[in-house]
Amino acid sequence: MKKWEEKLRQITPYVPGEQPDFPDMIKINTNENPYPPAPGVEKLLKEMDTKKLTLYPNPGAKLLVDELSKQYNIAPERIFVGVGSDDVLGMIFMTCFSSDKPILFPDITYSFYDVWADLFRVPYKRMPLDENFCIKKEDYLGENGGIVLANPNAPTSIAVGLDFIEDIVKNNQDSIVVVDEAYIDFGGESAFPLLEKYENLLVVQTFSKSRSMAGMRIGYAFGSERVISAIYAVRNSYNSYTMNYPSIVCGAEALKDVAYFKECTAKVIATRERMKKELAELGFSFPDSKTNFLFATHESVPAVELFEMLREKRIFVRYFKTPRIDNYLRITIGTDAQMDRVVEVLKEYLEKR
Amino acid sequence: MKKWEEKLRQITPYVPGEQPDFPDMIKINTNENPYPPAPGVEKLLKEMDTKKLTLYPNPGAKLLVDELSKQYNIAPERIFVGVGSDDVLGMIFMTCFSSDKPILFPDITYSFYDVWADLFRVPYKRMPLDENFCIKKEDYLGENGGIVLANPNAPTSIAVGLDFIEDIVKNNQDSIVVVDEAYIDFGGESAFPLLEKYENLLVVQTFSKSRSMAGMRIGYAFGSERVISAIYAVRNSYNSYTMNYPSIVCGAEALKDVAYFKECTAKVIATRERMKKELAELGFSFPDSKTNFLFATHESVPAVELFEMLREKRIFVRYFKTPRIDNYLRITIGTDAQMDRVVEVLKEYLEKR
Lengths: 353, 353
Hints:
The structure is a homodimer. Chain A is of the alpha/beta class. The first copy, chain A, folds into 2 domains: 14-36 and 259-352, Aspartate Aminotransferase, domain 1 (Alpha-Beta Complex), CATH 3.90.1150.10; 39-256, Type I PLP-dependent aspartate aminotransferase-like (Major domain) (Aspartate Aminotransferase, domain 2, 3-Layer(aba) Sandwich), CATH 3.40.640. Chain A is built from 11 helices and 13 strands. Chains A and B meet through helix 1, helix 2, helix 4, helix 5 and helix 7 of A and helix 1, helix 2, helix 4, helix 5 and helix 7 of B.
C-alpha cells in the first residue's frame, strides 16, 4: 500500500441496490410508486425559466419548506429538507448522536442505519425483533445514545401504533428519537401529533414513495426548532446548497395537489389489499403490510428460487440474503396490470413445479 | 441544557452567503454566470418524461459521467460527481484526509476548507500567502496530511502555472493533493494533464461558474481509479443517490454544447479584460484575474464604504470582513450592460466624494 493510500478512509463499500433498466421489465424491487408525479410537476418543468439555473438556489429551499409548512401546519423553522430521506437521516446521524452510549435500532430494519453509524463512528446496538418480526418495546427503555425506528418497519412492512411510539419517546426524553416514516402514507399512523409534546422527537418522511418522486431526491424531517437548527448548522458546514432548483420548485408543486396524492396512495393500498388475497391463495404468507410492498414467504418454495425465476421473466423483486429473512421476498405494489402479471407468472410456476 | 441537547453535535453554524432576490438588482456577489445554460437544457426540461421521476436515478449518474468521460477523454472510473463541488470537496475531505498530520491550505482561500476540516475533525494548518496574495510554494513541501489548493485561488483571482502545481504534486507523493479548479475555464491552466502521471492528484471542477448551472448543483472530480473508488465507497455509505434525474440529464446535455460553452466563457473573459481597464481608470487596483471576478481595492475609498453604497443601488458585490482582505471587493463579471451600470455608479460616487 502506498503512503497516500494509508491516508484514505478504509471503508467497506456499501453497494446500492440493483437498478435494472429494460423496456419491458416489471420493476418492483425498490418500492417506487407506479404512478407518475402530480401533473403540475410536468407543467412546471415545461415552463421552467432556465435562466433561474444560473443562480444558486435558495440555501434553505424556502419555497419547498414553506409549502411543507402550509400542508402540514407546522412552523418552517421546524422543517429540515435534504437530498432524499437518506441525506436527511445521514445528517441526523452526524448531528444528533454525539454520545458515547450506543444508539438503538432493530436487527431487521432499513439497512442504512448501521452503515451511517459506522461512517460517523456512532456506537450502536441492534435489538432483535421477536419471532413475528415485531419490535419489543422493552428493548428501547434503557439508557442509550439515541433511538431510530422505521415505522412502518422495512422490509417487514409492519406498523406500530401511536401509543407504542409515544411510550418510547416519553421514556427516552434524554435522547433524540428518530421515527423514519418513509412508508407512512400507505396506512400507518404518523408520530407527527407527538411533535407538540416532545422536543426530542424527529419524524422523517420522503417524496420517493407516496409522492412518486424518487428521481427528484427529496426528503424532510419535522422536529423541534432547537434540533432542526442543529441539523442545519451541520448541513450548512457541509454544503449550503443541497437542494437544486428543480427539486425545490417541483417538490413544492407536488405538495399542492392533495387530491392526486390521495388518489394515488388509495390506488396502491387497494392493489395491495387485493394482492394479499391473491398471494395467500398461492400459498404465500406475510405480515399485515401498511406499506407499498409485501414481505412474503411461500409455504413450500424457497424465496431465492422464486426470486431467480421472476428475474428471468424480467420481474425484479427484492431478495435479502440475510439471516432470519432469507426466505422472504419484498414485493413492491405496482399497477394492477403489473400485479396481475406477477400473480400469473407465480401461479404458472407453482402449478408446474 | 437538557440531556438530549448534550448529545447534539456542537458546531458554530456556517452562515451561507447572501442570496438577495430583487427584480431590478445586479447580483454580482456569488460569481454566477450572467448567461443562461446551453439551449439544449431548456429543450430537455420541456420534453422531460416525468414518469422517469418515479424511479430512483442511476446511483453512478452514468449518463453524466459518460459524457464527462467523452468530453474530457478520461475513463469513467476516474470521475466522481456530486451535488456541486462543495459536495465533491466535502466527500474528499471525509475520504482522503484520515491522517493525524495537518492538511495544508492558504490562509486566504475558499472559506469552506477549514469548515470541512472542523466538521470531519481533520487537523489543518493555514499557510500565509505572501504580501501580493501569492502562494509560497516552499510552504507545501514539508510533511503533511494532504494539500488543498484553489487554482485560480479565490477570492484573490490569482492563478499559478502548471509547473508550479506539478512541483507541489511531485514533492507530495505521500499525500492526496486536491486542486480546486472552480474558475479554471476563465483562463487558468488546468492540472488535468498531470493526472496521467500522479495517482495522488485530484482535480475538482464545477458546473456552477463556467457552465451557468449553479442552480442545478453539479460538481465533479477527476483522479486515479483507486482514489475515486474510495470516495464513492464513502459517498455510497452516506447516500447512494445524490444526483437527481434532472441534474444527470441536464448536466450531460450541457456538456455536449461545446461551442456555446466556449462562446460564453469568451464573453465573460472579454468583459473582464475591459473592466480591468475601466476600474483601473477609476483608481482601483487588483491582481491579474484569471477568474470570472475581480478582487479590487480602491486607492482612497474604503471597500466597506463602496460595498454599502453599491448595495443601496441594488448592486450586490461581495465584501469579506476578514483580516488582510477587508479593504477589497470581490466583483463578479456580469453582462456588459450590468458592468456599464456598475462603472457608471462608481464613477458618479467617486467624482462627488
